[in-house]
C-alpha cells in the first residue's frame, strides 16, 4: 500500500477548484474509480454537489458520479490524495497552490489544467505551481487540448494531451484520466502545450468578435490560421517544439475554442461586438474569461521576446485602449505585405 492509498485500497484524488472544467475532470477521475474530493470556497456549492449531485451554475443539469464529493476544507480534500489536479483560474493559481502546499504528500502527482499566464510575472502555470509547492518544475504535468467541459461531463468522445518533462509523470496522468470516452496522449513539450493553451483564448476572443460583427467565414479562417502563426512564433521564442502546435494542444484546441458557443472566450468576444464595455461583458458572463487576462500577458510577452503578434496586439487595443473593432481590423488588413511562411534561420 502506498502512502497515498487508503487502508481500503481506494485510490484518492483531489481537484481544486469546482468550476466547470474542474468538475468535468473530477467526474472523469471518479468514473475511473477514484474517490474524488472536489474543493470549493463556496459552502452552498459544496452542499449542492453533495446533496443533489449537480453543479448547476457551471454544468446545468449534468449528474455527477457517486464517487465525487465536495468540500470547503483544503486539508480534507487533499488527505491521502495520490493525484492533485489544479484547475484554479490563472489569477488565483498561486493563492490556491499556497493554501494546498502544507497538505500535499511528497509523492502526490501534481497536474494542472489551467490555460493562461500569471499576469504580473508572465509565468506559466507550471512555474507558479513549482514555486508555491516547492516541487521541481520538471515534475509538473499539464493537461490540455480540445475539450469542452459540457461535452466531457456527458462522456462525449474527447481527446487531450498530458505533458511533463518527466515521462513517468505524464504516463501516470495518462493512466489516471484515460477511458473509453476520454483518450489521453503524452507529450514532453510543457512549454508548447502551455503557450498554445493560453494564446488560443485570445484568438477565440477575436473569433467571437468577428462572428458578432458578421465578418464571415473567410475572415474567421484567416484569423485562426494567422492566430496559429502567432502561437507558434511566441512558443518557439520561449523554447517550444513547433510540432506541438500542429497537435491537440495547438490547432486542435484552437479550432474547438474558436468555433463553439460552449467557449467562454468566443461568447465574450461576440458580446463585445455590440459595443458593450468589457466590464459589462465580464459581469454578464459570470465566469472567468481567461483570454482577457492572457491578452495583457501576451502583449507584454511579445515585447519581452521580440516577436510580432499583430492579432493579439490589436485585441489588446480593443480591450484596454478603447479602439473600435473595425479600426483594429483595418490595421490588420492594411499591414505591409509580407511572406506567409517565415524564412528559416
TrEMBL record:
Binding-site positions, sn-glycerol 3-phosphate: 115, 145, 147, 200, 253, 263-265
Kindly tell me the pathway this chain contributes to. Answer: Membrane lipid metabolism; glycerophospholipid metabolism
Q: Which InterPro entries match?
A: 6-PGluconate_DH-like_C_sf (IPR008927), 6PGD_dom2 (IPR013328), G3P_DH_NAD-dep (IPR006168), G3P_DH_NAD-dep_C (IPR006109), G3P_DH_NAD-dep_N (IPR011128), NAD(P)-bd_dom_sf (IPR036291)
Q: Where in the cell is it found?
A: Cytoplasm
A GO molecular-function annotation = glycerol-3-phosphate dehydrogenase (NADP+) activity
Q: Which family does it belong to?
A: Belongs to the NAD-dependent glycerol-3-phosphate dehydrogenase family.
What is the name attached to this protein's record? Glycerol-3-phosphate dehydrogenase [NAD(P)+]
Species name:
Paenibacillus agaridevorans
Amino acid at each position: 500500500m502506498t502512502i497515498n492509498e487508503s487502508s481500503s485500497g481506494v485510490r484518492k484524488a483531489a481537484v481544486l477548484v469546482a468550476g466547470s472544467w474542474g468538475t468535468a475532470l473530477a467526474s472523469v477521475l471518479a468514473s475511473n474509480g477514484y474517490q474524488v474530493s472536489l474543493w470549493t470556497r463556496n459552502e452552498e456549492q459544496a452542499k449542492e454537489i453533495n446533496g443533489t449531485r449537480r453543479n448547476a451554475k457551471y454544468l446545468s443539469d449534468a449528474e455527477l458520479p457517486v464517487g465525487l464529493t465536495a468540500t470547503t476544507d483544503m486539508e480534507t480534500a487533499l488527505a491521502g490524495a495520490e493525484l492533485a489536479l489544479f484547475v484554479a483560474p490563472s489569477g488565483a493559481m498561486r493563492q490556491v497552490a499556497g493554501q494546498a502546499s502544507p497538505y500535499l504528500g511528497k509523492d502526490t502527482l501534481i497536474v494542472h489544467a489551467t490555460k493562461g499566464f500569471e499576469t504580473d510575472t508572465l509565468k506559466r502555470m507550471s512555474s507558479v505551481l513549482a514555486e508555491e509547492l516547492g516541487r521541481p518544475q520538471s515534475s509538473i504535468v499539464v493537461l490540455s487540448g480540445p475539450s469542452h467541459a459540457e461535452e466531457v461531463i456527458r462522456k462525449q468522445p474527447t481527446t487531450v494531451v498530458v505533458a511533463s518533462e518527466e515521462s513517468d509523470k505524464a504516463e501516470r496522468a495518462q493512466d489516471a484520466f484515460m477511458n473509453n470516452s476520454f483518450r489521453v496522449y503524452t507529450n514532453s513539450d510543457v512549454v508548447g502545450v502551455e503557450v498554445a493553451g493560453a494564446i488560443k483564448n485570445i484568438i477565440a476572443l477575436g473569433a467571437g468578435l468577428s462572428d458578432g460583427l458578421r465578418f464571415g467565414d473567410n475572415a474567421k479562417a484567416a484569423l485562426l490560421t494567422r492566430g496559429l502563426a502567432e502561437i507558434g512564433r511566441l512558443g518557439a521564442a520561449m523554447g517550444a517544439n513547433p510540432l506541438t502546435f500542429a497537435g491537440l494542444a495547438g490547432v486542435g484546441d484552437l479550432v474547438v475554442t474558436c468555433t463553439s458557443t460552449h467557449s467562454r472566450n468566443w461568447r465574450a468576444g461576440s458580446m463585445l461586438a455590440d459595443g458593450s464595455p468589457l466590464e459589462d461583458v465580464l459581469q454578464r458572463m459570470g465566469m472567468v474569461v481567461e483570454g482577457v487576462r492572457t491578452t495583457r500577458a501576451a502583449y507584454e510577452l511579445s515585447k519581452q521576446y521580440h516577436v510580432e503578434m499583430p492579432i493579439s496586439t490589436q485585441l489588446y487595443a480593443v480591450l484596454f485602449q478603447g479602439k473600435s473593432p473595425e479600426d483594429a481590423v483595418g490595421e490588420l488588413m492594411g499591414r505591409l505585405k509580407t511572406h506567409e511562411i517565415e524564412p528559416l534561420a
